[in-house]
């Protein structure tokens, strides 16, 4: 097998020990690392067709993997006006006014990234923007992507003029005391009422947006992602890009299982496992156990300070337990969105019950998000072999150290003090995987690792950290996107390390991502990204 890639003058960093390997060069063929050694012996493996790159002392780590990402829906939802930089209502109003000026007559305005903290404790509704959006159909997606604000014209065009009933227990068209919609729509079932009234992009436009997003991710050092949805054309898009050689990330895709899925639906999810191509495959199932704390749809053991977040996403949580058992018996790992303490506890109970009833050993189930949990929950992750999938930048950017943010005010002091317990979960023996949950938060992996270390607001790194005692070290943060991500996927024998026989998925930096100061880490230059032995991003300096 011919050598396709040779990297010279590299500092090869082992994410298990945090030490550099003694070798300074590597060769790859067939998508795998085939040799490690000195420059002279590795260079000798190259021929005229080999890509040879002198890294000039760059630090190489195993390729960074985002443990929770939504490439297709993210590419769609982040199209339009970015409101993530707005910190108050006047800034949102100004941004909307500017966007309205650029709209063609009758066109819809799409915006995303709206932080509910801009309302400063007042109701989250469209009323503050009625004047600027007068006659304009607009959809303003809140940052959590579980809720949106629809303008009065958008509601009118969609025929939404009052409350609705939904199968999703936490979905709601929020209405005032007179039964009139306020513009706030909670969860997918309610949001879709208005979204489907808007003009839809063509399939080619959607494919192009996805390809562009994936290329941008590669340039930030990402070599892979655990994609937590497979809706609509997602799998077809991955297949097309892969076949065309345009898929720059290795993707592990978990399709959704929604409430009401019957035995045939579960069997279809099982039968679909393993489908894929060279750089993507279907592996696992994604399930929602609750919504979000910010919009009152999480599942808490005690209601939040608004009397909300009292219910599971599944009208009958025991039906979720039965689905988990069926998937477990089939050897299918389940990744469950569980934000509130009651939701996390129920997921762990369901996994414990499934394991007690038998089935194959070694199925690696996961809990996604885990935003607040009590002490007695921590140890159960390691005991049950359940992966803790965390998104630390959510804590950094959507909460505040003084607990004056919407998330903390809803929870109250005791539960807000248990925010994103990365340190405690790590110390309890859990496998902690880090990710962005893009488009909820930015995908650059250095920002994710930095947030896990400093826990400060990304917009103002001089701000106080939220729960600094929960910070991870530089090495632990790197592990969260390399060896731990590989373990969560059952790939620890072929990914997450720089070893002969392992995948040639690699990321090269201008400095050491472990030693770099946490607040400076997002600015560390990414010099090279390699997936399956092929450079997918290469800095002009190389």
From TrEMBL:
Residues 52-537 form the Amidohydrolase domain. It holds the Pfam family Amidohydro_3. It comes from the Bacteria. GO terms for molecular function: hydrolase activity, acting on carbon-nitrogen (but not peptide) bonds. InterPro entries: Amidohydro_3, Metal-dep_hydrolase_composite, Metal_Hydrolase, YtcJ-like. Keywords: Hydrolase. Gene3D superfamilies: 3.10.310.70, Metal-dependent hydrolases, Urease, subunit C, domain 1. The keyword Cell membrane does not apply. This is Amidohydrolase family protein. It comes from Streptomyces davaonensis (strain DSM 101723 / JCM 4913 / KCC S-0913 / 768).
């Amino acid at each position: 097998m011919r050598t396709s890639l040779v990297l010279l003058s590299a500092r090869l960093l082992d994410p298990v020990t945090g030490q550099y390997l003694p070798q300074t060069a590597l060769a790859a063929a067939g998508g795998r690392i085939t040799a490690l050694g000195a420059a002279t012996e590795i260079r000798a493996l190259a021929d005229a067709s080999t890509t040879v790159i002198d890294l000039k002392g760059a630090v190489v780590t195993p390729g960074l993997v985002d443990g929770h990402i939504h490439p297709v829906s993210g590419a769609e939802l982040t199209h339009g006006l970015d409101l993530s930089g707005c910190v108050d209502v006047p800034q949102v109003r100004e941004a909307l006014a500017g966007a309205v000026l650029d709209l063609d007559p009758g066109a819809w305005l799409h915006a995303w990234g709206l932080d509910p903290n801009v309302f400063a404790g007042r109701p989250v509704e469209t009323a503050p923007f009625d004047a600027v959006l007068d006659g304009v159909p607009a959809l303003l997606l809140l940052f959590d992507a579980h809720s949106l604000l629809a303008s009065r014209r958008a509601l009118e065009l969609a025929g939404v003029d009052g409350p609705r009933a939904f199968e999703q227990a936490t979905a709601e068209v929020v209405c005032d005391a007179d039964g009139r919609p306020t513009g706030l729509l909670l969860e997918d079932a309610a949001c879709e009422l208005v979204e489907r009234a808007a003009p839809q992009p063509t399939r080619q436009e959607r494919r192009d947006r996805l390809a562009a997003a994936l290329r941008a991710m590669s340039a930030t050092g990402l070599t892979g992602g655990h994609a937590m949805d497979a809706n609509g054309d997602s799998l077809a898009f991955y297949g097309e890009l892969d076949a065309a050689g345009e898929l720059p990330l290795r993707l592990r895709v978990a399709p959704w299982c929604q409430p009401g899925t019957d035995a045939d639906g579960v069997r279809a999810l099982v039968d679909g496992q393993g489908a894929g191509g060279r750089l993507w495959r279907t592996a696992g199932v994604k399930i929602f156990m609750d919504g979000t704390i910010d919009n009152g749809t999480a599942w808490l053991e005690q209601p939040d300070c608004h009397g909300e977040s009292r219910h599971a996403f599944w009208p009958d949580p025991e039906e979720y337990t039965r689905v988990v058992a069926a998937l477990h018996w089939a050897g299918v790992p389940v990744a469950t969105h569980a934000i509130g303490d009651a939701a996390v506890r129920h997921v762990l109970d369901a996994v414990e019950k499934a394991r007690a009833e038998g089935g194959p050993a070694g199925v690696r189930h996961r809990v996604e998000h885990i935003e607040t949990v009590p002490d007695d929950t921590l140890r159960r992750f390691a005991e049950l072999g359940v992966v803790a999938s965390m998104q630390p930048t959510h804590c950094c950017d959507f909460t505040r150290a003084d607990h004056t943010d919407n998330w903390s005010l809803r929870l109250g002091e005791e539960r807000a003090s248990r925010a994103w317990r990365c340190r405690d979960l790590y110390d309890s023996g859990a496998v902690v995987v880090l990710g962005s949950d893009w488009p909820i938060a930015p995908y650059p992996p250095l920002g994710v690792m930095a947030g896990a270390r400093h826990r400060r607001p990304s917009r103002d790194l001089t701000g106080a950290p939220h729960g600094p005692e929960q910070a991870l070290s530089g090495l632990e943060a790197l592990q969260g996107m390399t060896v731990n991500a590989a373990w969560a996927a059952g790939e620890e024998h072929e990914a997450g390390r720089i070893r002969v026989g392992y995948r040639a998925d690699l990321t090269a930096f201008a400095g050491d991502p472990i030693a770099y100061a946490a607040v400076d880490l997002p600015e560390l230059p990414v010099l090279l990204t390699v997936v399956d032995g092929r450079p997918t991003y290469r800095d002009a300096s190389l």
